[in-house]
Amino acid sequence: MIYDRVALIGLGLIAGSMGLRMRQDGLAGEVVGYARSERTRAVAARRGLVDRTVDDAAAAVLDADLVVLCVPVGAMGAVAAAIAPHLKPGATVSDVGSVKRDVIVAVGPHVPDGVHFVPAHPIAGTEQSGPEAGFPELFDNRWCLLTPAADTEPDAIDRLTRLWQALGSTVDVMDPDHHDLVLAVTSHAPHLIAYTMVGVADDLRRVTDSEVIKYSAAGFRDFTRIAASDPVMWRDVFLNNKDATLEVLGRFTEELFALQRAIRTGDGDMLQDYFTRTRAIRRGIIEAGQDTPDADFGRHPRKVPS
Amino acid sequence: MIYDRVALIGLGLIAGSMGLRMRQDGLAGEVVGYARSERTRAVAARRGLVDRTVDDAAAAVLDADLVVLCVPVGAMGAVAAAIAPHLKPGATVSDVGSVKRDVIVAVGPHVPDGVHFVPAHPIAGTEQSGPEAGFPELFDNRWCLLTPAADTEPDAIDRLTRLWQALGSTVDVMDPDHHDLVLAVTSHAPHLIAYTMVGVADDLRRVTDSEVIKYSAAGFRDFTRIAASDPVMWRDVFLNNKDATLEVLGRFTEELFALQRAIRTGDGDMLQDYFTRTRAIRRGIIEAGQDTPDADFGRHPRKVPS
Question: From CA A42, how far away is CA A84, in angstroms rounded?
Fold first, then answer.
């Protein structure tokens, strides 16, 4: 057991997966869960995401050794303000937000003296959301990034590190601004681009919806997975990681224009070189265990004669 | 048996999958395969992609009832010129190119009188390529589009339709220009965008390669699958479907700028509405059987307690 009592504020995909794993492996004496919606609390109770649900965030954090904010990034500040007066001295407050600088700015000032604040971001998820979506293996073989301030109590960081390791993850500590830039590249810009491409396909009136769907196996369907992610969560990510996301998108547009120009002028060598280079990155991701080597993500039944 | 003798010109992912399935299900009396490279022919022979390999395209088509051009789109014209004098009267020439108008322009003039030309495009594939990549189930539950000219002999179209159905596909007939626009949306533009995003990630020097790879599970890794596709094939697709691809990319950029503007000005409602709308398309694709409903393409081990 790593914490006596853990409070999860918000009960979506990430909190649900944390709760299921903590309960399965006995990582906490008790896991208490708060969600604003009665339906969410009912699903959480039925699925056993937590030991106990409460309908008041302040009540959830009473006597908790660890409080994890698992709400959309834009809601973190208000939730922190609501629970702050009820936090136990010596407790740790953490979060699972995909953006770190703005969460630190929104939450930090509410954290009382004597309470530790260790922001965190598990690099894991699926396109599904809500209390039905969680599963205990979500964090297996994934990274969790912590972005504590330099003067944070090392014991609080160590303990949260042990929890994330027990949840299945490898933990890295990172500067929050660097985190926000790295995630703009590996997550936020790709999501916006996927949303955009799916939106364009939806808009093109000469190409009927039905054709876009029927012939999606030619590549388009890969984009639709991440473009099916939770709209409110992603709205908040973009609004709260504005600068880094816009910087990466600017770089992306510049590069896209260069490739469009190569197509227009018939520069086949440039295209072939570019496409050869990008192959290497996929090999790296597969070697790092962050994706499957199976063709088509393994989603197609595949029997190759030897 | 649908054809007495089929010649496959080129022995990559598509031809290999066709050959394996034709042999497995007895769809042709004999399948002859030609590839320029000796290594490719050796792999094809070892894996049994065809009954017999030959080192000369003209020899491959001798007495063949169906000749399928399975080379990159940019190589189709030269191959058609080489085989044309050797085609059997009454034979059918087809292809599997991802672009149809330019293939028709390049191949059509070489097809002799008395030989039928039925261009085809199976909407199936993986990010893997070469003679090792094929498997007999590749076309199961996928679409194959035929784009014959209006005066094509109906019997030739019907017979090729029966072959593709026997390979596992559903067949549609489509105008070649419409095909090229639809595929620009569902395949060509998404591939170029994925290549671009992977290239940008590779270029950003403040974000090390290793970080891009480690934290790729946050969305980026989905892009790397299609950006690992065959560079020569894709170079030719873009060079030969220039207008439609550039048109869709123009529309994409316009839309991306609108979303960037919403981020910059903090227009959360616009973002949330947009992201909600794109969710519906994924549902459509799953209902149409063109992708799996499992979270994360089913690539993550997932056990949800009931």
Answer: 26
DSSP per-residue codes, B165-185: HHTT-EEEE--HHHHHHHHII
CA distance B267 to chain A (A): 8
ipTM: 0.92
Q: Are residues A79 and A156 in the same domain?
A: yes
- How do strand B52-54 and strand B28-34 relate by DSSP bridges? parallel
Contact B225, A297 (CB under 8 A): yes
CATH code where residue A278 lies: 1.10.3660.10
For residue B10, the distance in angstroms to the closest alpha carbon of chain A comes to: 19
Q: Which of A187, A193, A292 sits opposite B218 (nearest CB)?
A: A187
Does residue B200 sit in the same domain as residue B279? yes
Does one domain contain both B168 and B228?
no
Contact A264 B279 (CB under 8 A): no
Q: What's the rounded Cα separation, in Å, for the pair A83 and A77?
A: 10
β-pairing, B120-122 vs B143-146, is antiparallel
Residue of A173, A222, A261, A292 for testing the chain B interface, max B β-carbons within 10 Å: A222
A240 contacts on B by Cβ (under 8 Å): none
Residue pLDDT tens, chain B, 306 long: 999 999 999 999 999 999 999 999 999 999 999 999 999 999 999 999 999 999 999 999 999 999 999 999 999 999 999 999 999 999 999 999 999 999 999 999 999 999 999 999 999 999 999 999 999 999 999 999 999 999 999 999 999 999 999 999 999 999 999 999 999 999 999 999 999 999 998 877 667 778 888 899 889 999 999 999 999 999 999 999 999 999 999 999 999 999 999 999 999 999 999 999 988 888 888 888 888 888 888 775 443 343
Question: Which residues, other chains included, contact B73 with Cβ-Cβ below 8 Å and sequence gap of 6+?
Answer: B97, B98, B99, B102, B103, B233, B236, B237, B239, B240
Nearest CA in chain A to B229: A279
Give me the CATH number covering residue B89.
3.40.50.720
Is the domain of B26 the same as that of B168?
yes
Q: How many whole angstroms from its chain centre is CA A35?
A: 18
Of A174, A198, A215, the one marking the end of a domain is: A174
Q: Which residue is associated with the tokens 């934290």?
A: B215
Q: How many domains does chain A have?
A: 2
